[in-house]
Amino acid sequence: QVQLVESGGGLVQAGGSLRLSCAASGTIFSINAMGWYRQAPGKQRELVATITAGGNTDYADSVKGRFTISRDNAKNTVYLQMNSLKPEDTAVYYCNCNVVGRVVRNYWGQGTQVTVSS
């Protein structure tokens, strides 16, 4: 079994920064794509950023230039550096990893709350 544990959420003023982390543990041979999603109250979950095993990244238009996704393959960890935060970034942030273990499947973290005050 594989578990994803997220950390780093919290309350921050507009214009501030936060760094989210998501560590995968369990039977892991390798991890393909890793990503961050978010879900605001009353809205559908949306993609924020993804990073491939080779380090190629992709971002939602709403966060380009403000957020940076990165990964540490030795630690099976993905990060999301969030700068210039806006109130509309308020949401529960979830990490998602495509893990190669006994089987290949996607796993979700439990979510971490990010609240940006105006």
Description:
By secondary structure, the chain is mainly β. The chain is built from no helices and eleven strands. Strands 2, 4, 5, 6, 9, 10 and 11 form a seven-stranded mixed beta sheet that branches. The chain has a four-stranded antiparallel beta sheet with strand order 1-3-8-7, with no helix packed on it. It is globular, with a radius of gyration of 14 Å. The N and C termini lie far apart (about 40 Å). The mean pLDDT is about 95.
Backbone structural class: mainly beta
Number of helices: 0
Name the average pLDDT: 97
The SSE string, one letter per element, is: EEEEEEEEEEE
Quick structural gist:
The protein has 118 residues and is mostly beta strands.
